[in-house]
Structures are given as C-alpha cells and as structure tokens.
Design a protein that fits this description.
711 residues; 3-stranded antiparallel sheet; mainly alpha
Amino acid sequence: MTRTTALNTGRDDFLSWAETEQGVTLPLRPADAVLTLLALRGADRRAGVPEPTPQLLRHVLHEDLPVLLHATPDELAAVPRVLTALADRVRAAHRLNAKRHARLLEAVQEAVPEYERAVHDPLNLTWPRWYASLLQADGVDPDDPGAVRDWLAAYARTPRPERRPLPPEVRRADVAARTFAAQALLTEALLDASARDAEGASPAGRLLPGAAFDAAGPDELERLAAELIERWTAAGLAEALAGPYADLAPGPESLPHVALADRLLDEHLDYYGDTGLPLPPPPALPAPEELRDLLHAAPLPAALAAGADGDLSELAERCGFPDPATSVWNEGTPQELTELAADILAATVERIAADNEEGEAEDEYALDAAHVLYSLYERGGTPESVARKASDVAGGPPLPTELEDAPAEVPETAPAAYATPSPQELSALLHRPGLTEADRAGLDGHARSLAAVVDRLAETGCVFRTGDAYGLTPLGDAVMRHLLTVAHVAAPARDTVLTWHADRVAAAVEYWPPAIAAATLTAWTASRAGDGAGADDAWSELLAAVSASAHPSTTLFSHLALAGIPDAPLRAALTDPVVGAYAHRLLRDRGEDAPLDPVPLSARALLLLDELHTSWTQDMRALIDAAAAEEEGKKEEAREPEPAPTALLDAFDAAAVAWPGGAAALVDALAAAHPSAFVLLDDLRARHPDSRVASLAARAVKNARRPAVRA
C-alpha cells in the first residue's frame, strides 16, 4: 500500500502541544489510533482534536483498540496518558469546564481495567495483530514494509510444525471472524464519517480528505481501512495478508467448517438455550499424534488428497485441495489436521443437503445431517440405533425414557448394506412387544433414509455404522468438539471436567445422559479422593454444592443413585434444608431405615415441588392432546370431550392431607421453596374445585407479584 492518507485529527499539533506544554512525549502509534477512532466515532473536533466523552472513551478503549491496535507494552501502557493529555488539551481550548474535565479524567481511570483485560483477551486477536506480535517478537521494524515482507516470506517457508501456534484457547476460525468484524467495524465507521463530511464539515474542517472521498465507494473505504490497520500494526501487513500470503490469514469464507459450527450452535441453543451449559465429554479423544493416521485412513479425505476429479472436484476445491490443504495433509499440525477434517465434514453436510434439493437423493434426513452429528455428540458420543432414532422421529409411540439416551449395542460385524431389524429385534430394541412385519415395513423407509445419510457421513471418517448401530468415531469426537468450540459452546474434555469445582459438576451432569452422568460423578469423586479427601467427603462436597445452589432435582439424584453414592453422605445430608428430602427418599428407595423427622419442612417442600411439576407437565400434555383431538373431531364427527386432567390437583390434595398444617401451610411452604412454584400455584388458582384452595393459591401468587415495600 503505497499512499498514506492524512485524516484531519490534529494529531501532529496535539503531539507537539503535549511535548511543549506538558513535557510529555507521547508514542505516535497509540496516539494516532486513539485520535482517529474517536474522530470516526463522531467526536466533536472544534478544539482542533477529537473531544472525548465518557461514552466515546468506553467505545474506543473496550471495543476498538483491543482489535485494531498492536503496540509494544510501553505503547499500550501509554494509552491512558494519551487520553489524559487529550482531556487537558480540550480543557486548554476552553471546551471543558473544571467539572466536566474532572469527570472525563475519572472516566479514563474507570475504563482502563476493562481496556487492559480486553487488550490481552486472546479472543480479540485479529490476523494483523497476531502477525504484528510475531514481527515484534522477532525484532522486525514494523514501520519498514520491506522488512515486513521479508519476514512474511520466511515465515511462509517455515514448516508448519515449526510455526508458532495461536494461544491454546483460540482457533483460526475465531481469529478469522474477529478480523472480518474489525475490518467491517472500521469500514462502517469510515462510511459514517464520509456521510458526516458530506452533510457539513466541522469548523475544524473535513475529517477525510475531500477530493479523494467526495464520491468514495466501498473499495476506497476498504482501502483506507486496510491502510489504518497497517498504521496500527505493521506497514504493508494487511495488503500482504489479503494478497500473496492470504493462506496465512484465512477468512471465514475459506474455512467451510465455520458454517457447520454455526449450525451446531443453533442445534445447541434449540436443546439448551445457553452456550454455557456444557455438553458431556466424549469417552476418549484421540491423542494428537493419532489424528494424521485417522484422517488419512478415511475414504473421502484420502480420495480428495489423491487428486479428486469429476464428481468430487468441487468438493476438493471447497476443502482447499490441492492448496493449501495438501500442505496440511502432509505436514499439518494436529490442530490443522482437525480443521481440515472439519472442513471435509462440513462440506459433506452441505453436499448432502444440496444433492437432496437437486433431486439426486430423497433422504428425509438430508437437511438434518448437522442434527444427526449434534445428537450423537450430545449423548456423550455413545452409539445410537438407526431404527430407534427413525422410530422416534417418524411419528410412532414415544420411546420409554430409559431408551432415549441408552447406548445401542454395536455388533462385531454386519453386512455393509443397511437392513431394518426384524420385528422380533425391533420389539426388543424399542421395548414394544408384539411388533409385526407391518410395523417393520412402516419403519423401513425412514430407517433406510437415515442410514443413507449416516453412510455418507461415514465416508469422512467421522461417523461409523455397523448394522443398525451408528456413532461418532474417535476422529469424529475430536472434530465435533473442535466445531462446538468454534461455536463457543461449552464442550469440555473428560480430564477438564475432573478439575471442576463441585457446583459446576453438579449443575452440568443434571442434563447429561444417565450413564455418562453417573460415570462422571464416580470419576470426579474418585479423583477428589485421590487428592487426599476421603470418598465420603467428596460425595458430601457434591451434596453441599447442590444445597448451595438451592436447586436440587429428581434427575440429579437419580444420577447420584446410579453412580452409587454411599449411604453415609446421604445420612449426613438428612438435616439439610435443601437436599434433605432427596437424600431421605434415596435411602428409603434402597430399603434403608431413614427417619423423616430430621428432614426440614423446607427440604420436603422442594422435593414435593419437583413432584408436582411432573404432575403439572402431565396435565399440560393432556390438555394439548385433548385440544388436538377436539380439532380433529370437528373435521370428522362430534366426540364427547375428554374429562379435564387432574394430575396436579390430585397430587396437591394428597400431599396436603399429610402436610403439617394442611393445605394452607402447604401453599405457603411451596411459595417459599422456589419461584418456580408460582406457575403451579397459578394453575391451582385457576383450576382447583375447592374455592378455599384456589383462594389460598391466588393470595400467594398476588403476594409474590406485589412490589417489595421499602422501609
């Protein structure tokens, strides 16, 4: 980039003023970045420099500088001094009174801690900032474009395993996305500045040079954005990374797996609604040194690496073959090989859907190939049954709860072509005795459609199918975990989970398949016992964490039971005001003699609330089914309406009989137990036939909605 565009920020006069009037020599790079970004953000320039405000300060320090400026530690430390001097300069121009000046200086000090955190946050890395940091580490002059080009040329010749890796918590997709976002942010800010100049120049003059930007189009603004990035990182760097060294700085468009990561993020949000809720770890991830052999052994990757043509040529190009993927194939690091495998998997998912849309296939699961992959990882990487999965989505009777996450048995051998299991095998597989050949025929098309998609995914080496069982391979576990990490979904490795605190373990395993949750709890307590704590102490630590969360659940305690939590920690927890009743029930379920007297009423209310929620859910499902049946009846012939469901009402009445103080005391106890009680109480208000109970529930709901009275 040969020309340098001067923006009217008053930079040189400001630096001269700071040195003359304050005896301070401010570094050029951070001063230029601060002034330019403030001006682009719309700061008033009537003082001859951009005039900061507390809000503009926060934008520039927290959002702009951390992604656009690379500087030495001394330069970064000078940023607050630049802003302080700038506030003084605006004050000297009589644009700030003493009060506003003091408020501005205070805003600088308040914004600095978050600025320092953001600057060092690896997720704020961009490609220009990353390579500028490597140039700095190697002592290259960042203002010498020739030296920068020579360093890039040498770095490109460096074998991949010898190149410096990104920080361990960062993926290339993260850097690519942040780079794109930073360039877009800067280009948009320039566009806004150009519009402001066109509307009417500031008394200090136009910010952008007039002749060049009177009719500035996107290309000119992008050129200026790249020039500014080079001024704040290293000369010629942005141009080189967009040109001859583009493979060193891939954008989102050259990383196909980013699109699949986005699909998986959507799947996770549909399941959990929160990226922070962790997925269960795979049983065992392959060692880094095993990834190359696993990838090379997969049919589709091997075909692409061998020089695919014809039908596979477009897929090969999409995945970067022959360049730069061939280089990764031959000498890539484990991280790069995982990314390449992810690119191939993502491109295959895209192709399956495209083939289906073009009529080359009629697979009902083709558009949901990403869901097939996610559902396998979400179940802890355990194998699934094609027929069972097909039955679940084909409109048949709901699967028993114990089957939903149960691992499918994988036969040692099976024919390559898929065959839907026999009626007898299906009866055992689905826990539905007496299935017939007609039942098998009704399921056959759905099962074959799913198996066809699974088989195409299996060509990538990430999925296997043996007979009716299918699942993720070790390579698939590694690739899916990488994709979910790119999507910023919590996808920990097993060893990481073992280092968690008790509260995080308890919160996570509640949502995991029972066998995975139980194995994790057992492994976690064993690791704690190995650290010097006794096994019972480790289990008690878990129970204490659940108590502190004030959110026990039947599901979590069923996982604890499956994990074999000893009796002693349960007995010690009987008096706990949160988990005492859960511990009591678990002991009684084991046939142990456990008195109820020590269990506080608050703990009993929490357990009862959990049980009442189950009854309420049963009622809601019945009401929905009744409404659907009524609508269907209108289309056919009039039917007698089904009686209104009463599971919640019956469960409440039964509990009230045994509760000390009866229904009134029970309503108060439920209201005090947890906010989720008010959904049930509101339903009791609306549906309970006993007006006294309905009135008690209405009063509790009303009191909960009443604003707190201040003293």
